[in-house]
Design a protein that fits this description.
Chain lengths: 105, 120
């Protein structure tokens, strides 16, 4: 979670820097009176780097895939109650006649 | 105590068997769909920003969206270790789910970034 999130923030920062560079490039084109045909190469490189970092973040941050097969090892039910040590079977309740027995007779 | 916990588990399993195919774990399936949906939405937003900065217009932007979604699908498949059937019930799920929802966010952020960078 932590590393992926930081990588995503870094990617977004790189993308915003690329946007800022493009704005400056367009301002320069306006001064030299040329047509915009495409962003400069360093912006393209920045965009690809930002896209890769964000991709990494998008694939790691949301969490792991869990197996949907009910017979796989991850989905085995092995949990025991936490108070196992405190279970008492030999207590005074034995002396009281149980309702179940009465019904059975 | 133990009996109650066990009966909860048993009930859960029983409802799984009734509602779904008996071999699939419904809760984990939902979790996987949610994870994939987050990935796709984030990637379509980022793809929209990149398309806007690149200055793509018209059909090229949609082609770029298809490209991004294709790469995302491959990434998701790689994340699942290419054993799709132990995490999803079919290939369509990983290739198509959340495609049109992502398209809306893509168009929104595409126009947003294009306006900021190229028009204002």
């Amino acid at each position: 979670m932590g590393v992926g999130f930081v990588v995503g923030v870094l990617g977004v920062l790189i993308l915003s820097h690329a946007a800022y560079s493009t704005i400056q490039y367009r301002a320069m084109l306006k001064i030299t009176e040329e047509e915009f045909s495409g962003p400069p190469i360093n912006v393209v490189v920045e965009l690809i780097a930002g896209l890769m970092l964000c991709m990494w973040a998008a694939l790691t941050v949301p969490g792991k895939f869990l197996s949907i097969l009910s017979h796989s090892d991850e989905n085995r039910v092995v949990a025991l109650p936490e108070n196992l040590d405190f279970m008492i079977f030999n207590h005074r309740g034995k002396a009281i006649p149980m309702g179940i027995d009465a019904k059975l007779k | 105590m133990a009996g109650r916990v066990d009966s909860d588990k048993v009930k859960e399993k029983a409802s799984d068997n009734l509602n779904d195919l008996p071999t699939f774990h419904a809760e984990n399936m939902q979790n996987n769909a949610k994870v994939m949906y987050y990935s796709r939405t984030f990637m379509s937003i980022i793809g929209g920003v990149v398309a806007g900065i690149l200055g793509l217009t018209g059909l090229m932007g949609f082609v770029f969206y298809f490209l991004i979604m294709g790469i995302t699908s491959v990434g998701l498949a790689a994340k699942a270790g290419f054993s799709i059937h132990s995490y999803f019930d079919s290939w369509n799920k990983i290739l198509l789910d959340g495609f049109f929802g992502g398209l809306m966010s893509f168009v929104l952020f595409w126009t947003f970034a294009y306006d900021i960078v190229h028009i204002f």
